[in-house]
Design goal:
The protein is an alpha/beta fold. A six-stranded parallel sheet has the order 3-2-1-4-5-6. A five-stranded mixed sheet has the order 7-8-9-10-11, sandwiched between helices.
């Protein structure tokens, strides 16, 4: 049986690249049949990574068959996985997020969760000496994942180990990190082709805070004006997206990578309360700038209050 390797429903660079990396490792090093798949369309930065390193876009699936062998990467949250995930035969989980709970397995499995900025960093560690055998394209995917998740080492989730692994990969590839990261972020910032609803769901995760269901969306960009110029239509679209997705509210944080700050759209009193109680912000309009806020995992989710 071929093991399917996949990440969460909104495939960013890490959730696109890490399944490719781990499927390569299972196939070529462990001798186990595996293939990477996606649970949605990759974002623009992930698509850039695939093209840059001449990697095939993995098949997009909507569910898993009962008893299908799977490895879950870059998440352990059932809300970010197929509704039938507990019917599958989960073989392993490799992740760098907090433990959520709710997954059921057929038996004992390998679980690796480490406080690092990127799943790909963990994978390189797990490979040990075999990491040196990664072909150029797989090393390129790993480097892309780390630079994306760390925002080129700007994110507070970045560890010295993430940086060291990225620098080693870049040296092996002959890649200038600053120049390559700039290309990646430029690709990520081009959102002109996406509808408001697509933007709100592009990099979003579901969380419950004090009994309220939030879809917490983050758009990381070097050109925040392109997103903020659409704030009125984005706030209008939040109503339908929340209703369709069973959420009470969509929270949209537009992260300015270069200025290292986030702008939160404030469409109503609920979000105003969230901004003031969570971040100590003073809100006077329909947006609020949150200096230093870069990471959903480390700075946004842990602080959310109503």
């Amino acid at each position: 049986m071929t093991t399917q390797v996949f990440g969460h429903k909104s495939p960013d660079t890490d959730s696109t690249g890490s399944p490719i990396i781990w499927a390569w490792y299972l196939n070529e090093i462990k001798g186990e049949a595996a293939k990477p798949v996606l649970l949605g369309e990759p974002n623009t930065e992930a698509a850039f990574m695939l093209e840059r390193w001449n990697l095939d876009k993995p098949e997009i699936i909507s569910g898993v068959a009962e008893g299908a062998a799977v490895v879950i990467v870059d998440t352990n949250n059932p809300a970010e996985l197929p509704a039938d995930i507990n019917d599958a035969d989960i073989k392993a989980i490799i992740d760098h997020h907090k433990l959520v709970g709710g997954l059921e397995t057929k038996g004992p499995i390998d679980i690796t969760m480490r406080p690092l900025a990127c799943t790909a960093t963990i994978m390189v560690d797990l490979m040990g000496d075999d990491a040196a055998k990664m072909p150029t394209a797989i090393k390129g995917a790993a480097l892309s994942c780390i630079l994306s998740d760390t925002l080129e080492f700007r994110s507070p989730t970045t560890t010295a180990h993430d940086k060291a692994v990225a620098e080693k990969l870049a040296a092996d590839l002959g890649v200038d990190i600053a120049a390559y990261a700039s290309e990646m972020f430029e690709a990520k910032s081009d959102v002109s082709a996406f509808s408001d609803a697509e933007l709100l769901r592009m990099d979003s995760k579901e969380y419950t805070v004090d009994g309220k269901e939030f879809r917490v969306s983050v758009l990381e960009t070097t050109a925040p004006k392109l997103v903020l110029d659409r704030k009125d239509s984005l706030m209008a679209a939040m109503v339908d997206v929340a209703a369709e997705d069973g959420a009470d509210q969509v929270l949209l944080f537009v992260v300015d990578i270069l200025n290292e700050e986030a702008t939160l759209l404030v469409p109503n009193d609920l979000v105003k309360s969230v901004a003031e109680k969570s971040f100590g912000a003073s809100v006077s309009g329909d947006t609020v700038v949150l200096p230093g806020i870069m990471s959903r995992k480390k700075q946004i989710i842990p602080n959310l209050k109503i």
